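Q: Could you fold this chain for me?
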Amino acid sequence: MAYKKSKETYNHIMDVTIELFYTKGFKETKIREICRQANINHSLIYYYFPDGKYDIAYKLITVHEKKCSQALRKHFKTTNYILYTLVWLRFLAREMLQNEIDMVCYVEAWSFSRPYRNLFIENFTAAKQIALEVDAHTVQIATLMGDSVWSGLYQSKFDGKMNISHKEIRDATDIARWTYMGLSLDKIKSYIKEAEKILETIPIQHTHLLVSKNEKE
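A: Sure. Below is the predicted structure, expressed as structure tokens.
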């Protein structure tokens, strides 16, 4: 009979890792320390999470983005795909910036593991809706290029190499992505301005990526 994974063990590993990410950061959290604090065998963690802490971070990010999407849809609905995407990305960033350790962990984990998300599909749908003459390959390049701009600028900010605001990073990322797909600079700036006005009407939801056990208590 095949061995069944324990939900209790899975949740325990997640809780221990979240606490370490919260107190030490993603980069400084070592897999052996997770195992030691969770009181599990080193090889067992890979049974639950094949890619180790990267897999755990991916799951945290996926759950967090899903919660943010659900929260946003309660306040903002539109069939304009590019506008929705721009609002959603800014909403996601604003939620994480309520506790900056969330943003730091998100950027560090993203830079290392680059988890898959549906932004390519959203970008492709939006590009077609506004009649940009692009194929899937172009949109894929634009999506990856935007991710690289975003993570690169954040790493420079965290390393103290650049004095750049969160807004400047978000805007630069979107401008790079959409101008590559053929949208004019003026047009993407206009969409960004509209997205920011919409975001001002949406209350902060306090959806956190990381929550310390002390905060839960």
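A (continued): Residues 136-158 form the longest helix (23 residues).
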